[in-house]
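Quick start: what a row looks like.
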Amino acid sequence: MNRFLNISAIIMAFLTEGVWAEPSSKVAFTPEVLKTLSAGQTKKGEEIAQSCVGCHVLGGAAPLLDGQIGAYLFKQLKDYQDGSRMNELMTGLVRGLSDQDLADIAAYFSQLKAPSSTKSKVTEMAEVLVHRGDPRRILPPCVACHERDGRGQKIDVPAIRGQSAAYLHQTLKDYKSGQRHNDLLGRMRAISQELNEKEIKALAEYYGQ
């Protein structure tokens, strides 16, 4: 229970400061959207995703998608479509796709084997942040949302284990600066505001390959 109170406190502090001026995403997981997601067809998704693997198979600046939470992938693609998440290349690629196309892509990638994390650079700083957080900063542990092995949770918490450390590092920096702002309830923006550069780097290396 305490972990959820911590997250709620961070969100309320974030909202009180007036940083979140508008909805972070136009996606709502209504029964209709969930029905579309459940009807995702992996074979069709594989066909559409042929243009995706060139960037998303090796890691680096682009995230690895294999084994990612399907609903999370769907949300990100929708956010690119409507401008809630900004990337000129991705917006161009998904602009003409239907919701069913996006659900098919999400279904395809979500059923692939997720990458594993080697954890070759584990520091005490990272261990503390991942498993205990920092109550003094009302900072919840990463495991509160991303689970102990970084596998994420259904709907909107992504799997982060085995991601490119470079991608994770840049993502946290983008949340901290506000350049990325499509996190539901502003959670990652609020959390990243409490992290310094050394902590961001340590967490990226902890979860990264």
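That is the whole record. Residues 14-18 have pLDDT under 50 and may be disordered. The chain has two domains: 2-22+116-207, 31-110.
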